[in-house]
UniProtKB/TrEMBL annotation:
Organism (species): Candidatus Kaiserbacteria bacterium CG10_big_fil_rev_8_21_14_0_10_45_20
Domain of life: Bacteria
Protein name: NYN domain-containing protein
UniProt GO MF annotations: RNA nuclease activity
Upper lineage: Bacteria, Candidatus Kaiseribacteriota
Domain NYN, chain residue ranges per copy: 10-145
Annotated InterPro entries: LabA, NYN
Length: 174
């Protein structure tokens, strides 16, 4: 094991957003600064990558908030003339970056924030290789059934009331 290995978080930003802010039953907003502190203190996360679709001037406030909180923003590559027709879909970028970090022996453990079943095969591989630290679901009830066979020790539901208390945005007095 190399000394430069670290625990790294990979956040599927669209999945996190859809599972929290856009949740149809119980919408809530994560306080990104508190979330980043939580990742550092609870899981010793050195670097936290936050993956988004393509850059848009409409989202400059979000980008500033992410960077101020200590996240490293990663955008998906797109052909410039087709940006309006594309969705975020960062799954392959996340899988590639995780596998590249493993190949280069740059990480100790992976923390993945997503409930998207597209990561299930990689998550099973990470468990087998003892490289999965945690899988944080934005909302476990809406997570893919493909994670059903992953041991509960690896899974955390961010929508639980205690988690919302830790990382949720505080209500402002009116």
């Amino acid at each position: 094991m190399q000394e430069n290995q670290k625990n790294i978080a990979f956040v599927d930003g669209q999945n996190l957003h859809l599972g929290t802010t856009k949740h149809p039953d119980l919408p809530w907003r994560i306080d990104l600064a508190r979330f980043r502190v939580y990742l550092t203190e609870k899981y010793s996360i050195d670097t936290a990558y936050y993956y988004l679709g393509y850059p848009s001037a409409q989202n400059n406030d979000l980008y500033e908030e992410l960077q101020s909180a200590g996240f490293v923003i990663r955008f998906r590559d797109h052909v410039p003339n087709s940006l309006s027709a594309k969705k975020g879909n960062v799954d392959t970028d996340i899988v590639f970056d995780i596998m590249l970090a493993i190949y280069k022996d740059e990480l100790k453990n992976v923390l993945l924030v997503s409930g998207d079943g597209d990561y299930a095969k990689m998550v099973r591989f990470l468990v087998k290789e003892k490289k999965l630290l945690k899988l944080l679901f934005p909302n476990q009830k809406r997570a893919s059934a493909l994670y059903g066979n992953i041991h509960s020790d690896y899974k955390v539901d961010l929508s639980r009331p205690d988690m919302r208390q830790k990382i949720g945005q505080k209500e402002r007095a009116g």
